[in-house]
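I have been asked to look over a protein record a colleague put together. Thanks in advance; the entry in question is below.
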Amino acid sequence: MKKKHSLFLGLMIVLLSMNSCLTQKKLTYLQYSERYPETGLMGTDSRATATPIAYKLMPYDILYIRVITPDPQWAEMFNTVAAGAGGTVTAESAALLGYPIDEEGNIEIPFAGKLKVAGKNLSEVKADLELVLKNYVTDAAITVRMVNNFVSIIGEVRAPGRYPLTKDRVNIFEALSMSGDLGEFSNRQKVQLIRPSPYGPVIKEFSLNDRSILKSEFFYILPNDIIYAQPMKGKTFQMNSSIYSLFLSSITTILVILTFVGIPAN
């Protein structure tokens, strides 16, 4: 009878072990692989990384355009977004009074009319504005920014939400750090990035465990990207692991008592 108790006790211990923490391999970012072997002085080939691309404007984007000129009258006409106290511009005022891009890809410039901006980056739009506005103002300094410059991070992250991109080059790890990193039950081998395009959303799935992500065109985040961190298949079991552990521990304790005191079990 004690032999049966010992066998059952061993089985309980195995089950408890299976319910242990996640393996380090599943949680470690940027692991070496056959596609990205360990090379170079620092253990990686820094030349084999992705090249950031400039975002191409699309319909329904909103632009913030600021024209600084010695003539305050012209500056007031072109600057639809009024600065608040201290010369600051709020996100709300920029969104409401910015320059929206219509379905045809144009913005409406006072006195100058429509200007085609869809399919161009911000530098190209600034150059076009300088050509258009030189007929009205001289020595003007023009600033062009995107108002809807955000990344959305959802799924198994510590703080899902919509976060502003404050610089041009933001990679996926910097973006995830805004949300407090991936959660414990996030599947790092299956992270999805949803990127808008003129032809509809483009979905890319990749692994953050593999260093090959450094060479992917999706390594750098673009405005309005959505990062979706998928949960692991065993999340439900892991979330209830404390209950399972308590139940199995109770059974194990009873079996230990029965084994050592010699009370037969039915």
